[in-house]
Design a protein that fits this description.
It contains 9 helices and 8 strands. By secondary structure, the protein is of the alpha/beta class. It has a single domain, classed as P-loop containing nucleotide triphosphate hydrolases (Rossmann fold, 3-Layer(aba) Sandwich). A hairpin with a 2-residue loop joins β4 and β5. Bound molecules: 2'-deoxycytidine-5'-monophosphate.
Length: 223
């Protein structure tokens, strides 16, 4: 059995993490949510209370250790040994993560760590640049897209379940802005790799979208 690399990229709310988690569970692979790593850097900088500048973020980055651990409830994210899995999902972090993740040294450090984690294969990694930059040699690349309405509804549901009040129109604006930022940045912008398979998840259930990916992965693993 081959231990392949499965890269799942796409914009916010396209269903990457939900499907990546299930695909990894089914194949007994390790699931790595790379967005959590950029969120962890953002949170660590926010806690310093300094202005958003490269210099301030790099100061924090220098002494920062981002750790990922697998648990029965999914991936847990650590900043210098502290479990920050809940805090990195706060709306304030979501609002500021795009500019932080666009900084060159932030990307260099995170990408290096991601490559180490995936070196032996047997992983499902989701993000924005996994199929293009982190693992251009990945055996399976999937690019998920969905309508802005479907994506805002999904994010809204997630936030409501955590007790936040939600305005769907605001969410649509926030998501579109983040897409624009992530797609237009200079370094490793969000884009579909030429050899990635695009799946529109707007009208698919998690089960349907994961089944498509699992079938594709099995064909490659068993070939
Ligand atoms: O997937 P997410 O919403 O948790 O990602 C948060 C941000 O991190 C996203 O707006 C862009 C950035 N990101 C990135 O630049 N590269 C990745 N591989 C993953 C996320």
């Amino acid at each position: 059995m081959k231990n392949i690399i499965i890269a799942i990229d796409g914009p916010a709310g396209s269903g990457k993490s939900s499907s990546a988690r299930v695909v990894a569970e089914t194949l007994k692979y390790i699931y790595i949510d790379t967005g959590a790593m950029y969120r962890a850097v953002t949170l660590a900088w926010m806690r310093e209370g300094t202005e958003l500048t490269e210099e301030n973020v790099y100061k924090v980055l220098d002494k920062l250790k981002v750790g990922l651990k697998q648990s029965s409830s999914g991936q847990r994210t650590f900043v210098n040994e502290e479990d920050v899995s809940d805090d990195i999902r706060l709306p304030e972090v979501t609002r500021l993560v795009s500019p932080v993740s666009a900084m060159e040294l932030v990307r260099t450090k995170m990408v290096e760590q991601q490559r180490e984690m995936g070196a032996n294969g047997g992983i499902v990694m989701d993000g924005r640049d996994i199929g293009t930059i982190v693992f251009p040699q990945a055996e399976l690349k999937v690019f998920l897209i969905a309508s802005i309405e479907a994506r805002a509804e999904r994010r809204g549901l997630e936030l409501r379940n955590k007790g936040f009040e939600v305005d769907i129109e605001n969410l649509k604006t926030e998501i579109s802005e983040r897409d624009r930022y992530d797609s237009s940045r200079e370094i490793s912008p969000l884009r579909k790799a030429a050899d990635a398979l695009e799946i529109d998840t707007s009208n698919l259930t998690i089960q349907e979208q994961t089944q498509i990916i699992i079938n594709l992965a099995k064909q490659i693993i068993e070939s």
